[in-house]
Amino acid sequence: MPTKAIKTLRLILGDQLNARHSWYQDIHEDVLYVIAELPQEAHYVTHHIQKLCGFFLAMETFASAIKSAGHQVLYLNLDDTQEYARLDDLLKHLIEKFNVTNFQYQRPDEYRLHQQLQSINIEGVETTQFETEHFLLPHTELAHYFKKDKRHRMESFYRKMRTRFNILMEHTLDGQESPIGGRWNYDSENRKKLSQSDIDLVPQPLTFSHDVSDILERIRRHKIPHFGEAINHSVWPKSRAEARQQLNYFCNYLLVDFGQFQDAMTENSPYQNSLYHSRLSFALNCKMISPMEVIRSVETAYYENDHIHIAQAEGFIRQILGWREFVRGLYWANMPDYEHANHFQHTRSLPNYFWTGKTDMNCLRHGLQHSLQDAYAHHIERLMVIGNFCLLTGIEPSEVDRWYLGVYMDAIQWVELPNTRGMSQFADGGLLASKPYISSGNYIAKMSDYCSRCHYDVKLKSGSKACPYNSFYWHFLDHHKDKLSKNPRMAFAYKQWQKRSSSDRQAILQQAKSNLAKLEQL
Ligand code: FAD
Ligand code: SF4
Fold this sequence. Notes:
Blueprint: E1 8-12, E2 31-36, H1 39-43, E3 47-48, H2 49-68, E4 72-76, H3 78-81, H4 87-97, E5 102-106, H5 111-118, E6 126-130, H6 142-145, H7 154-165, E7 169-171, E8 177-179, H8 196-200, E9 208-209, H9 213-221, E10 226-227, E11 233-234, H10 240-258, H11 281-285, H12 291-304, H13 310-334, H14 353-356, H15 362-374, H16 379-393, H17 397-407, H18 413-424, H19 441-447, H20 468-479, H21 481-484, H22 491-499, H23 502-517
Parallel strand pairs: 1-2, 1-5, 2-4, 3-10, 5-6
Antiparallel strand pairs: 7-8, 9-11
Helix pairs in contact: 7-13, 10-12, 10-13, 12-13, 13-18, 15-16, 16-20, 17-18, 20-23
This protein binds flavin-adenine dinucleotide and iron/sulfur cluster.
């Protein structure tokens, strides 16, 4: 309990664990920091248990850290907050209890929470909103780069960011700036499949030992809906110190091969679920670590190590400087409408195997099992295996959103929604991507070893053994030709479709229809 007279209450949300925020530079005896396990946040979607435990553990650890630094902190767990179904009610109670005259908060990254905090108006209490001081672009500048309902492309945004923040740039004597290596983007070198000898070299991921038994007991006692299994050996950091360790581990052991194997998938490695990926998304999204420090560490590792090629460093930096900042801009420009976009008018429900992982499609089984076991799957599993399946089979985008938002450790709406609705489901009609990210089984066969042990045959397009992704792909194109055939980036696919004989096309469409009718049994 705070001992000094409190004038100011500062709210810290669960994804605002930024110890380097200017709030903490000075100790103010009349300021009380509040961090709370909120029923509304635990309930608004059904979360993976590792996500609930990971957030609560990181919040508790952050509260102890700022308390040790001398700040007054009130940590409220589910026992303390159980009577306050909504954040507003809890805040009103605390403001009254401590006779607070100033209420301060950092701008939430989620539209829903931002609306909620903005609407709080308590007589006699001055409310102030602060920047989170996390992203490269301050919120006030987003409108300069992103306009509502306008098509934006990541690549041009990324180039502006590279230049503006002088990242991986070189300067000639006459003052010209250019990207290091002469190219902005090494995406074409980021598509290598793992051979068996490559697989043997995949490093073991860094893990931390965390005891979450108290948190788990609390979650169960309060009957917070959840799924998945909790674990004590987690790959997710609970503190800034552990996040820094994770970043150093990435720069020392994983960066060297990150770019080239970025899109690869395998079932033949014990570390198949992490490969060369950093797993920094949770630490970044909770703000334990800042995007700029991650980018600068990777840039330094590239400059200091001859064996790290520009394609690896650029491939990684593009994800954070480009994609991460880009999806945030797009989200804020288009909310709240973005949440309801459904360009293809899809209505189907998610099959039950999204909750069990039990399907004969080997690629999808692995992608779902990784997600369900570890609250993680890497980008290509999320996009080209799971998301691709949802789009090709016409799953209603809200169902897709809810699944992604609940299952992944790093899922917070500002980053989940544009990735799911925009990038993966093309539900925004092309605000984020110039064409839908769809593929037949060919792409999965090219980037993984899943097909060799699948019940289905990736070379077949029709018949009971045919890879379902194949017929779904052509059926999707055929079904949505009104919306897609005029897109120049889809011209090649439509030409290929037209080249097939009519009987071939009929057999494929028939196969897709029969698969759709028994989607639960695939
Ligand atoms: P790495 O592969 O090591 O990449 C490094 C970092 O780059 C990530 O930690 C992340 O911060 C950033 N990054 C990479 N790609 C993206 C992207 N498309 N958008 C934003 N940041 C990116 N990312 C989330 O953080 N939260 C989500 O809820 C989320 N949902 C997704 C849903 C779908 C359908 C798809 C296709 C992607 C989603 N992503 C999401 C983006 C990306 O898949 C994850 O950031 C990444 O897999 C996290 O693992 P990592 O830290 O090992 O990433
Ligand atoms: Fe996936 Fe098709 Fe390959 Fe099976 S054959 S693993 S379903 S792409």
